[in-house]
TrEMBL record:
InterPro entries: Fun_TF (IPR021858), Sterol_Uptake_Regulator (IPR053157)
Keyword Nucleus among UniProt keywords: yes
Protein name: Zn(2)-C6 fungal-type domain-containing protein
Keywords per UniProt: Nucleus
Protein's UniProt keywords contain Nucleus: yes
A GO molecular-function annotation: DNA-binding transcription activator activity, RNA polymerase II-specific
Length: 309
């Protein structure tokens, strides 16, 4: 009960900051948890992880509690997925979202110091999305067959990306957008240029999407138009060939992802994303080396990696 109480009075309120009108996380998600134990365990795992973030003196114990509930949640989710239908579609979507936040929280700086001999290769894989990118794209897979049902239910506000389709980054030139457009030079003439160009277009739209909510309270009618959803839209809409190039650690793909890290850095005050933007850029800086480093000068500067610039 202590973890559920913490979810209600603390964790749920930290997911959509500044929006006291939206009670989805605080009230409706626990309601789903009462109906579906695997959702409740996902709630408790994230609440325990949040307590680990807040109470560092008991971090290890809270993280152990989080792991226990997450294991139970994962087992229940796998069973629910084997009987996926309209009845549990909402719960599966909620679990998928909670699990993504859990993975961000557990894979970030909160885990620093837990391993006596951390593997630098493992850290690079984490920062470059080997685990969490499939989870983001997996949410879309979960939603697609049940989109109409979900849109007509309690999740209706989450089944829209607002004005995403109408956004045109070419309509209003902006200095930050010009920095992104300058990246074209690093893949001009390569066989993968069309893939990079499409990924760049999506990243430019993400920047524009996030700019709409910078410095203002999100509007309830904006649906899923929340500042922190902006970077994730890049992963959702980026072409699969680009994600493959990123997994291969091709330099132009890494450079684009460093700029994604700069966008993610804008969300550093969300506890489950703290440090992610800077750490992504740091990993990419290490992988690229001196030849390609000038291309990520701006992400390095805005994330604080290069304090001298």
């Amino acid at each position: 009960m202590a973890l559920l109480h913490h979810w209600t009075v603390a964790t749920s309120l930290e997911l959509f900051k500044g929006d006291d009108k939206h009670n989805f996380w605080q009230i409706m998600v626990p309601q789903s948890g009462y109906e579906h134990p695997f959702v409740m365990n996902a709630i408790l795992s994230l609440a325990a992880l949040h307590r680990a973030y807040l109470i560092r003196s008991d971090k290890n114990q809270h993280m152990a509690d989080a792991a226990v509930h997450h294991t139970k949640a994962l087992r229940g989710f796998q069973e629910a997925l084997s009987h996926f239908n309209d009845e549990n579609g909402e719960a599966v979507f909620i679990w998928s979202t909670l699990n993504l936040l859990y993975v961000f929280g557990i894979s970030g700086r909160l885990s620093d110091g837990l391993e006596p001999h951390p593997n630098p290769l493992s850290r690079k894989d984490r920062m470059l999305g080997v685990e969490w990118i499939p989870m983001v794209t997996g949410i879309r897979t979960v939603v697609k067959p049940n989109h109409k049902v979900l849109k007509s239910g309690r999740l209706s506000k989450f089944m829209t990306v607002g004005n995403w389709l109408e956004l045109d980054p070419d309509a209003k030139p902006h200095p930050e957008d010009e920095r992104l457009c300058h990246l074209r030079s690093c893949w001009d003439g390569t066989p993968d240029a069309p893939t990079y160009e499409e990924a760049l277009r999506i990243l430019r739209k993400c920047r524009l999407f996030m700019a709409q909510f910078s410095g203002i309270d999100p509007l309830e009618e904006a649906g899923f138009n929340r500042l922190w959803s902006g970077p994730l839209l890049f992963i959702i809409f980026a072409p699969q060939p680009y994600l493959t190039l990123l997994h291969q650690r091709q330099p132009p793909a890494l450079i684009l992802f460093a700029f994604f890290g700069a966008l993610l850095h804008d969300l550093d005050d969300y506890w489950f994303l703290e440090g992610w933007g800077r750490d992504i850029v740091e990993v990419i800086d290490d992988l690229l080396g001196s030849y390609w480093r000038p291309w990520i000068e701006w992400p390095s500067k805005v994330t604080g990696l290069n304090q001298d610039e």
